[in-house]
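Bench notes, afternoon.
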Amino acid sequence: MIGIFGGAFDPPHNGHVALLAAAKESLALDDAVVVVAADPGHKAVAAPAETRLALARAAFPGERVVLDDHGRTIDMLRDHPEWEGATFLLGADEFAGFADWKEPGEVLRLVRLAVATRAGFQQDRLDAALEALGASGRVTFFEIEPLPIASSELRARLDRGEDVHELVPAPVWNLIERERPYGPPSYTGRA
């Protein structure tokens, strides 16, 4: 079984790595594809697509890491018929808003969802999302250790000049230090 793990990865962090590792173990995935959204349709990104691709490749050594130009998951899946029947990995927060995605029913027809949950996440939010979709047979839940890390928080800390090396894989930190895609304006060349 193949797992698809998509995101902006702006930047990738230890929580992303832990989610994929837990999914591979819990779901017995044979293969995984990490998909970096070049221009996510639902959020702005700070670093250019090629930079985020390099960071994701550093975070997930040994995995297939690809750049995707589609702004929405359904459009990506339609252009990759070889992924039909795969398991699409996402966190509980993303799943709670899944009914608002572009054509969520069609996404569920093409792939199964595997949702990473953590202790303390509000079960009623997951239940409401599952009920809204009416597709409980297409959704699997697996538990991960809580790592309260968000890429937006990392960017904010980097913009303040803080060291976040403990929150990202060492190769990612090395790239951030060398390339300076985030951080105070004096680091990044931003005005």
